[in-house]
Each structure stands twice: as C-alpha cells, then as structure tokens.
Request: fold
Amino acid sequence: MKINLNADMGESFGAYQMGADETLIKSIQSANIACGFHGGDPVVMMKTLVFAKENDVSVGAHPSFNDLQGFGRRKMKLAPKELYAILTYQIGALMGSAQTMGLRLSHVKPHGAMNNMACEDYDMSLIIAKAVHDVDQDLILLAPVLSELSKAGKDKGLRVGEEIFADRAYEEDATLVARSKEGAVLHDPAVCLDRVLRMLDQKGIITQSGSVLACDIHSICVHGDNAEACQTAAFLKEGLLGAGYDLRRLDEMI
Amino acid sequence: MKINLNADMGESFGAYQMGADETLIKSIQSANIACGFHGGDPVVMMKTLVFAKENDVSVGAHPSFNDLQGFGRRKMKLAPKELYAILTYQIGALMGSAQTMGLRLSHVKPHGAMNNMACEDYDMSLIIAKAVHDVDQDLILLAPVLSELSKAGKDKGLRVGEEIFADRAYEEDATLVARSKEGAVLHDPAVCLDRVLRMLDQKGIITQSGSVLACDIHSICVHGDNAEACQTAAFLKEGLLGAGYDLRRLDEMI
Amino acid sequence: MKINLNADMGESFGAYQMGADETLIKSIQSANIACGFHGGDPVVMMKTLVFAKENDVSVGAHPSFNDLQGFGRRKMKLAPKELYAILTYQIGALMGSAQTMGLRLSHVKPHGAMNNMACEDYDMSLIIAKAVHDVDQDLILLAPVLSELSKAGKDKGLRVGEEIFADRAYEEDATLVARSKEGAVLHDPAVCLDRVLRMLDQKGIITQSGSVLACDIHSICVHGDNAEACQTAAFLKEGLLGAGYDLRRLDEMI
Amino acid sequence: MKINLNADMGESFGAYQMGADETLIKSIQSANIACGFHGGDPVVMMKTLVFAKENDVSVGAHPSFNDLQGFGRRKMKLAPKELYAILTYQIGALMGSAQTMGLRLSHVKPHGAMNNMACEDYDMSLIIAKAVHDVDQDLILLAPVLSELSKAGKDKGLRVGEEIFADRAYEEDATLVARSKEGAVLHDPAVCLDRVLRMLDQKGIITQSGSVLACDIHSICVHGDNAEACQTAAFLKEGLLGAGYDLRRLDEMI
Reply:
C-alpha cells in the first residue's frame, strides 16, 4: 500500500510570489517545477530545486505554453514541431539546473492549458510523449488517469504516473466536472480524504453517480495556492498515513 | 597540425532571420548555438541542431543575458546566483534538445556582452566556469586566448578551447583593439589568412606592434553575418587546408 | 479620381531587420506602424515615425496580438476586455510617440491573425472598432472591403478606409483565395496594375469568376518584404499616376 | 494648507498579484500606474484606471526600464534615444487607455532603478523631462525634492511635483539614507506622521542631524505593499486631515 502526493511548485516569477511552497512541500513527495514559460525563472527554478532536495522530494519538469501573462492557462494551437521543441527546451532547462546539484528528474507533467488540451487530444499527447521520451526515456509522464495523455504515454513506451484529483468531481467519462457546475470542487478536507481512500481501495475513480471506473492510481494531485489548500494537503497526508499508506516519491512508485 | 573554426549560429527568432547559417556551416567544425535569450527560439534551436548534425559540426551552447531586444549586446550587472542560473538554464535547454537526436554538447561559449564583460572580470568568469562545470564537467569552455574567462576556466578544471579572431587587431595586452579605432577590423581575407597562419606558426597572438604573445590556440572564430563574411570564412578554411592544417571538431582538439 | 497606397512598416525589432522600409516608403502615402507586440520596438517606432514625417506619409497604428515569436500570425482567443485593452495600449503607445513630433495618427489597421480573425467575426470586429473609437473617434479604421471588420467600423460610427489587395485573388464571397490554392497570389506587376485599375474603374472587387462585387475602395495594400515587392509597389504607383489618379494620404481620402 | 499623497499602483501582472490597491486607494489622491514594463499589463492598467476614476484619484504614468523579471529595480544603461522612446511609448500607452474613459493623465513618475539613477544624473533626467514634455507639456513630473530629476524638470519648463518620503531618513545632502544603514526606514506610523508635519511646517526636509533643507513639498509618497503599509498610509491621511490639511489631487497642487 503505497501512494504519492504531487503538487506544482516554483511558479513565482521575479518579485512576484505565487503559492506557499514552503508549507506545501512538507506534505508532498514529488514536485512539478515550472520552467519559465508560464511561471518560474532561472533563479526561482534553482531555489525550488534546492528546496526539493532538502525535503527529499522528487523533482519533475512542469512545462507550459509560452504565456507568462496568461499563466499558461490560455489555449494555443502550436505546430507539432513547436510543441515538441518547447518541451525539450523546458525539460532540458530544468535538467541542466538539476544536474548542478546531482539531482535527476523523476518526471514531466504538462501545465495548464497544455495539459487540458492534451487530455482530450491523442495526437497532441503523442507529441508530448515523444518529446519526453526523446529527452530521456526513463522519465515518468505524470498524467490524469484514463486521459488521452496517459494513453499516449503508455503507447510511446513511457512509464506513466497516473494521478487523481483529491478535490474535483468526475464525470461518467472520467473527465473532470466543469468548474462552472455545482459540486465540481470539493471543499471539505474530510470529504476529500474519504473519497481518495475509497478510490484507492476500489482501484478506480468514483464518478458523480457513484460508478467506479477501474484504473491504476499512482499519485494524488494537491494544491498550495493558499493556506487553506495547504491545510487540505496536510490533512490528506496525515489521513493516508493513518490509513496505513506509505508515501513515496514518484520514482519509487512505478 | 590541427585547428578548429567556430561560429555563432541559430540566432534567428521566429519570422526574423539572422545570419547565413546554411552557407557558413560549410566552413566550420563547431557551432555556438543561441539558446533563446538573445536570439534563437526552441524551433530555431532544434533546426540548427539537425543542421549541425547533418554537417558533422560539433555543437555548443551560446548562452547570453536575457535581452532579445538588445541581442545580448548590452551590459547587465547580475547577481552571481542569477548569472549562474541563467547559464545552467540555457545550457540545459540546448542539451535537452540535443539529446533527442543523440547529440552531446561539446562546448559552451558565452555571447556578446556576457563574453566581453567576463573577459575582463575574473570573478564573473569563475561563476560562468562553475556553472559550465556543474552542469557537465566534460564540457569545453570556449574563450578568447589570454582572457580572464580562459584563466578562470582552467582554474576551475575545465578544458578550455582558446580562440583567436581572424579579423580583429590585438592590443599589446591581448585585448581587442576597440572598433572605434582605425585598423581594428581587418577586411581583406588574404590579410586575415596570412595573419592567422603566422599566429598558428608562432604559437601566439600578434599584436599591432608585431609582438607575439605566446598562447595555445585551438580555434578561430569566424562570422556569417552576410555573404562577404561567409566568403572570408570559406577562404580561411581553404587556406588552412592548403597550408596543411587538419580541420577538427572542438571536441577533437582538446 | 484619388486613391491611397498603404503598407506595413516598422516591423524590425532590435538587431532584427524586417522589410525594406526605406525603399517602400517612396511608393506609399500611408504607413501602418507596428506597435511592439508582433514587431517593432520603441526605438524602431520612433525612427519609423520620423521617416514617415520626412516623406509626408500619414501614420497609423498596426496593433497585433502579443506574439513576437509568431510575428502576430498565430490565432489567439482573447477575452473581449483583453482584446480591447491591448488595442488601446498599442494605439496609445504610438500616439504618445507621434505627439513628440507633432504627428497625429490618421488610422488604425489590425495586423496578421487579429485582422484575419476580425474579417470573419463581427463581434470581435465590434470590440476592435470600439477600442479605436474610444481612444480617438477621428481615427480611420483601415479594413478589407466587404469584411466584417469594415462593417463593424461603420456601425460604430468610424470612418472606414476600405482597402483592396493588389496581388491577391478574390473568392465570390469577397474573401481572399487561400494561399494554398493555385492563382491565389498574382506575381506579375502588370497584371496587378491592370486588375487594380479595373477594380477602381468598376467600383468594386473582381472575383476569380470575373464578377464585380460593388464596394467603396479607398486604399490599396502593398508589401515591402523584399526588393521584388518594392518594385511592384513602385510599378503600381507609377501606373496609377499614369492613369490620372491622384495619390493621397488616407486622411485626405475619407 | 494643502498636500497630496501619491502611491504606485497597478503593478500586478496576469495571474500575479502585487500590492493592496483596493485598500491603499482610499488613502491617496494620485496614483502612479505601471505601464507594462516592470509590472502591469494592458488589462491591469485598464482596471486600475477604472478604479482610480471611481475613487476620484488623479492618474499618472509610472514608466520603467523594460525588466519584468527584475521588477524595474535593476540598473540599465540605455542610449538616450532608447530612454526617450521607452518613455513616450509607456506614457502614450497609458494615455490611450485613459482616453477611453475620458481621463487625462496628471503626471509622470519614473519607477525604480530609472528613478534612482535619474535622481543622481542630470543629463539622464533631462532626457526624461524632454520625453514627458514632448508627449504633453501639461504633464507634471513627480520627482523627489532636491533631486537632479526635479531640477531637470524645472529647467525643461515642466511643472514639477516635489515629493518627500514619509518613512525614509534623509542624509545631509537630501539623498535617502541607504537601506543598509540603521534608521534608514521609519516603522512607527506616529513617528512618520510627526516628521511629515514638521517638514510641511518648516517647508523643507529634515535630515538625520535635524537640519532643515528648504524646498517646496507638494506630495508625500506612501506604499501599499502589505496591510501594515496600508495602515501607515491611512494613519498619515487621517493625521494630515486632523492637522487641518486639505488633501488634493496632484493636478490641483501645482
């Protein structure tokens, strides 16, 4: 019984602060580090790597569309070769910085709009998977369970870390309930923990109707946008430990 | 009797073209590839790497201050940790892209103002050398002969590729004659070739007064800004071959 | 019998050159000046304004999506308030610079993907027209004949400068024939001139089938990407003068 | 007996928040609005203008070096024509946006390193003053009392708004005590208020030794970086009102 908690980190930029990394890192075992395209800058990246190392958290690249003003949340339609190139660039940039402290990247997780678009687009996902594979075939692709991204990663021969969201409701087709709909986001930490434990126990995601969609689950995505989110993450960690789960780095999961 | 010719490449950006890479690459054995901070973008970088591979030219990172508008030619005073971080970021970004095609970087050569400032500043050079070393201690630091950058590279334990300029006059202290002074730039290819051959023969740079300052010479820096510059590069290559020199990739020189 | 020739200008950026402004300006009466979002920078903008003033060419803003790497040619889906804000920002930026030399902007012409998208999207065009109007209701909106952009500009109460393309074939619905189709671009200057004269004479655009779609025509868009394009522009200018047309600044046309 | 309180505003960027504008605006009469070069973006600028209008606060441009990552706090040595051009660009950009809501800019205040450098450099200040003047000679230049920037503004014929800092100690030569020295920053709101009232009363700044350096004082610069800073600003406002001062917009002061 082992599981991983992952979160986005290093999304500050210059004088601009984003997220409560110092608090959140105590609850997770793997960090997705922004690579300068939607957030992060070379100094922030280096600082975040040091910080992850000190806390024995495995590090992964969190590449994005090149859109600082939109924080990588705006859809962009890129030519395949550009999508491929911005991925190898960003993964490499973090890799170069990590090598200076003897760290090896455990994984890659696309950010924001790139992730959302890929989850519904197999062809786009295959380009992402190919870029990750071609930079280093030992990298894990961290992707939502039952997504096109997860599928493409496996088809490309990558190890895929399959993640669920602790605080988001699922539709019957395994996609997330749109934030605009009621009940899309779960706010009560106890409810989040209970649902996560049930999904791990039943080996699948539980949809709004209560159906179980069978899948592997390697990781749980948590957030650190504010103090409340950090408390939820800490609550989940304690709850999982209390239920007998072993919390592991992503590279120890797959 | 072996020598290397190096040149900056991949400095186009999006729709903006810079340099005649297609012509120039026929004359060189090592390319310094821009990493997106003063020129280049992920797509251009990838294209330039493919192009270098096809021509069996060794590839190096050509990192810069983050200054696209100034083409990396404007002096910036960065905190040591920022200088270090932008170097590991850029070297890694090219490394990640190169890995996708089985290429390994042979060297790093700082661009523009960063290079000029480092050549006169040992402490700054030591940070550069440390960043190169920490990413990959097998990387060659390509630096002007007798510069602080060359000195710091050796002190840090790096292999240093020492380069001369074919078309620039030297002061008595081994620095370049300022472009504002008469005679600073040599325009006649025959004069350039003759001087290069004498410097290689006498194992040192020849200053304006005719003095020889002894130094190792591993590489000659050429330019491809326009058709004329490319012709000079081709003329140098032919002249060196004619004089019995073996033209080698930088990673075969040191 | 009066007509205007307009062209995009000031699209260089830092060390990157784009277009042959010095040659092209001799053939036109109105310049659409890039505002830093797809090309141009504050120094280039100032230089282009000086240049336009010296040649008595009227100046307009050529705003774009914020996409230097894509040269403003990539589609972006912006929120209405962001589209509005990037327009008032860019128009103002050129206006501020123009005021320093006593110049007043004559017009605004959206660039690249923003223009293309607007031509087919009335709601988007209305936001553009509103932004232009709200900054200065005396500004002319320069738009392709029979486009949604032209329609929205008039509906908003703006003076609309209606332009045709000298070198592009038209579909039966007044849209441009896609570049991927044969015959989309006319390369022979004599053919371009002949067709332009017929369109002016018949007061409408002539489609591929030879039909005439009636419309006002205030301006002809020409290009200066290279020496050949500049020659076509010069040929058109001379042909129009030879046919008895009076070449006027856009602010003297409407 | 009238005085003005000014503060920097609109320095958020995309998803990144900076400053407590909503609270701070209740205490000031003039806002210096970032123009996108060190902070702010077109959407943030528009929102801040609306906000200032609702609160009847006069608006000024807060232009900067083009350095988002460094928040405009890093020194740059620009060519005079570039310094001039980035100022006319930024002032114009805010002006264009302000015109859409019938607002007229009252003033210009350089940001960060540009301001600091100008305060000690008359020639640089003269370029700034000329740029402000050439865009609109009615604009007020808001500058620290007894600085080279203030001097150059007057020499250029501009109205100069002379500002003091409520919370910073002054050297005998009217420069600010470096932050690295003890006592450089005053933290007690009551001490700040007392000192401001004495400076207004004695018509000059009071140095560390207690000397009074005579000067006009039109405005007091306050900060809104956090809740504490906003409280100090509110305390100053109440204290000035209590002492019988009339709080006025900058364009009503000079």
